[in-house]
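Hi L.,

As promised, Glutamate--tRNA ligase:
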Amino acid sequence: MTDPVVTRFAPSPTGYLHIGGARTALFNWLYARGRGGKFLLRIEDTDRERSTPEATAAILKGMEWLGLDHDGDVVSQAAGAERHAEVAHQLLAEGKAYKCFSTQEEIQAFREAARAEGKSTLFRSPWRDADPATHPDAPYAIRIKAPQDGETVIRDKVQGDVTIRNDQLDDMILLRSDGTPVYMLAVVVDDHDMGVTHVIRGDDHLNNAARQMLIYQAMGWDVPVWAHIPLIHGPDGKKLSKRHGALGVDEYQKMGYPAAGMRNYLARLGWSHGDDEFFTDAQAQAWFDLDGIGKSPARFDFKKLENLCGQHIAASDDAALLHELQAFLAATDQPALSDARSDLMGKAMYCLKERAKTFPELLEKAQFVLADRPIRPDEKAAAQLDDVSRGILKELTPHLQNASWTRDALEAVANEFAESKNTKFGKLAGPLRAALAGRSATPSVFDMMLVLGREETLARLTDAAG
């Protein structure tokens, strides 16, 4: 029986949850959830100056909005400093690491001299094989003894086998002279202690894998499965940055994209399953595999995102959509829907969610539900309400008063009335939209009537007829 899959997402809390980080989290979540494994969350807060509780909260909030639930408690990397140091001292005791007394100034001077001579700036510590009897009574860093010949092969599920010559690897510092562990050591110890089996992360970490493998091998630990995924680029093929638009997932929530559409789009960003574009979470979890990840950077495309979000809004359960709409209003500091409005929105959802790609578009279509009498038409709609139109609405109202309030009956009354005026119903639609919604782009007139009910519909028509 194979060991259960354990993946992790390990962001640094120095800002919001970046769109690239969100996709990395999603890939880890999909891989674990699709195999009945565990998805863990670790906050890499060892950079005490740049890490903030606010940033940690923003990351957790972004994960929550995206629906990426993690197993167990959130792990703080900084809290494990003693354990990380313990591993460095163990390697020192076993002769797999050594004390290095070289100062920052000495290392800097060596590098500058090497650069001037056109030689490699890879620092080779003179303390690697020094006799302990020659050790001064001074602060020291602990460095790992890296192999000096041969090759290290990173077997990567996305990039294939990546070979690095060992003479390109330095004796990496594990513990600084002030006794604090470096990030590279902390990552390996945490991943091992947390039982992580698959490390799925951005390919900007690919070179780190070779150096991290030194620690795994020196400790006799199993090396995880590596999968280094290409970064996300903007539509122009350059690395995604602020100039391309929103970078934090919180901004996408505030723009009104539904979380399911965002998950679907991010999953397709650099991963594919045949020609499938639109899919559910259950399908994504069942299909997602490391083999489907492409080697080249994915390009972010707002049109595709909007298209998928529109499909997800249309396919959503009405109650779930209403719940997410309320969350969108809260995220954008807009007043929540009252119970009465919420009920009406729920009733109207069937005629609102087709062709709305975002929540602001959905709310625009729902204006007829959200507006209070008297309805104030916008400029375009007001143009539909001239004296002739008002007269027609006044005449139509009594006909509707006695109609049974079903779609067929309302359509029949409206069409008969239009015929009696030697016109088509299409000519009445504009003034009716203006009267019922104050807008010229709305759901069907009959859908609005059914949602609003007889009393409210007639009251709005009476108001508009003047």
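The chain has a mean pLDDT of 95.

Thanks again for sending the construct details.

K.
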